[in-house]
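Fresh eyes needed here. Have a critical look at this protein's tokenised backbone.
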Amino acid sequence: MIMKTPAIFLFLFLFFSPMLPAQKPISVDEAIATALKNNYDIRIARSQADINKLNNTAGNAGMLPEVALTGSDRYALNNNYQKLSAGNDATNPSLSSNAINAGVDLSWTLFDGGKMFVTKNKLNEIEAQGEILFRENVLQTVYDVIASYYDVVRQKQQLVSINEAIRLNEERVKISSTSFDAGLAPKTDMLQAKIDLNVYRENAILQQSAIETAKRSLYQLLGMTAEVGLEVSDSIPLDYQPDIKELNAKIFSDNTSVLWYQKQVDIAKLSLREYNRLRLPSLSVDAGYYLSQNDYSSGSVLKNRNLGPQFGGNISIPLYQSGNKLRQISIAKTQLQSANDELENVKLQINTQLLNALSDFEHQQSMLQIERDNEQLARENMDICLARLRQGQTTSLEVHQAQDYFVQSQTRRINLEYSVKIAGTRLKQLMAVLK
């Protein structure tokens, strides 16, 4: 019966393992494409850009006529009394009347000082600004996806490092136990080795939790649930080398924040022109085809009907508006100055961010190269200490320190690779580069 138990467990494992959720591999490019399709921030930004596009019409600028079909029917029942000029009176206690009106109205502003054309240009700029804002949201989402994706990779690499430390400590426990059993080493060496092994096993559990947390953050950016079960790559590619001259030359022409505030200046200029045009005369026409009919139950006129077209025009010349137009113009000038100040301020901020990002990228690269060399030295030192432990030429404490130095060096190297990747991605984001 004892021999059959493992066979039963093996059968159950093989039978149910196809039912376990498989981890679907996904590349960073596929993750970005998924986020651009599903991410809710992207969808909201797209909707806002579409609203600006829908508002950009000639009709919304006031360039097209308005046509309306009108109609009314009013019935009245009155107690009518009339004193006539002949001296007699006329009384009708139940005089009824029915008034029917119908027509087609057309009103069209032909000239408003040119404001409608300025407004149309303003709507063009607002639409363009909406597209810039949408692109900025896309760039931020791409940055967040890359950072989140490679954070999962980093956490996985940390787990690999911890598992390697577990393997080394298992060997250390084995050596210490053998030495203790042979009377060549104190029991404390063996106990310390087992304590260190348990600590790394606990770290492995914590690291697995960190991986799951990082994955959930990635799933949220992708607009997916954790049940999908995605698996990322095993390494962080570091193939980006920025062109400093190109960055300095194009930062103000490509950066979405600068472009957005530049559009804000253009819109403020057009708003000022709009208010200035309100000081000019305006001309509008109206036309229509109307039916008017009145029916009376009694009296000298029982029916009155009018049917036909009507035409008219209006001209308005502003003379005095209680100072409102001057006030609006002054406000528009102040807003334009404020928009220019904001543009210069954001240029200064972006230039500072560029310099910081370049400095960070270069420093992280330099430290990464040092840490890679340091990791090789720590690995060689650990191997030597472990070999000496097998020969009884060193203590367990020295091996413990060598192993800790090696694991710490691996951790620093992994974090620096991630930092270099994020610094390069930040540079691309500043230059509005999606990949």
